[in-house]
Amino acid sequence: MNIAVIGGHRCSKKHYEIAKKLGSLIAKEGWILICGGREGIMEAVCLGAKKAGGVSVGILPSFDGSDANKYLDIKIPTGLGYARNILVVRAADVVVAIDGNYGTLSEIAFALNEGKPILGIDTFKIKGIKQLKSPESIIKYIKKIYAKQSTNKTIN
Fold this sequence. Notes:
The chain is α/β, with parallel strands linked by helices. It has 5 helices and 7 strands. The two termini are 22 Å apart. The relative contact order is 0.18.
């Protein structure tokens, strides 16, 4: 499963630690981390995933990938600037927003338009975002979503 974690390129120490923990938990589940690949929340979630032996993919706004954080495993430079946000969302099965600003808000809008499950910690209070309190509650909720999707599949 691909989990996108979105959030600002600047963040508080509190949100950095939350993102780092979430990245670790995503890796421990064996899921692929998708993000914008830069600093802030994106760096923290990649650091957490890296320390736990996971894989992180960054869909970068630059042409050359020079804006990638040092913990990123796979760099995908797009040259698209903020327009790359739709690619972050489309690459994901579930989107998790931590804090954030207008770039995060655009990704939330894309996720809602795409019908992707979107979970949040301390982010925008918008209809359609399931607000949760901790990285552990995020993982628990994703497992619930995945179990529900698995039981709804039929064999042809």
